[in-house]
Amino acid sequence: MSEDDNNMEDYPTEIHDYLVAFEKSLGSVDEMLKTMMSVSRSELLQKVDPLEQAKLDLVSVYTLNSMFWVYLATQGINPKEHPVKQELERIRTYMNKVKEITDKKKAARLDKGAASRFVKNALWEPNAEKEHTSKTPAKGKKRQ
């Protein structure tokens, strides 16, 4: 009997596909971590602006805490009753703040000059109306 056959007997066959997908996901996380760790933090932070630095830090700490959440679950500890839950909520709060800042930067800017011209031209001016009516013949009168 091979080692794979032995492992297949340790868990129900229905979850085999889930475990294979989980193993692939762990492999991709491992590759990303190796890529991130290959560049020094100071070198990486020199290349990005402060907002991108904040995003990078938040994603890193969120990922680390999420992995700890999974670790707790595998150890039979309920992560919902562990302080890691509050930490993840705190990180999400900061992620939302950074998202708001990013959205504000992307928002359309008001061109005050164009807006004032638009409003000025859209408003009714009584003097302009009198000039307009005196130049045009009144209805009902015949032109000669």
TrEMBL record:
Keywords, in A-Z order: Cytoplasm, DNA-binding, Nucleus, RNA-binding, rRNA processing
Record bears the keyword Transmembrane helix: no
Biological processes annotated in GO: maturation of 5.8S rRNA; regulation of gene expression
GO cellular component terms, A-Z: cytoplasm; exosome (RNase complex); nucleolus
Pfam families: Sas10_Utp3 (PF04000)
Subcellular location: Cytoplasm; Nucleus, Nucleolus
Highest rank taxon of the organism: Eukaryota
GO terms assigned for molecular function: DNA binding; RNA binding
Annotated region described as Disordered, given as residue ranges: 121-144
Chief site of localization: cytoplasm
Family from the record: Belongs to the C1D family.
Subunit structure: Monomer and homodimer.
Functional description taken from the UniProt entry: Plays a role in the recruitment of the exosome to pre-rRNA to mediate the 3'-5' end processing of the 5.8S rRNA.
Protein name as annotated: Nuclear nucleic acid-binding protein C1D
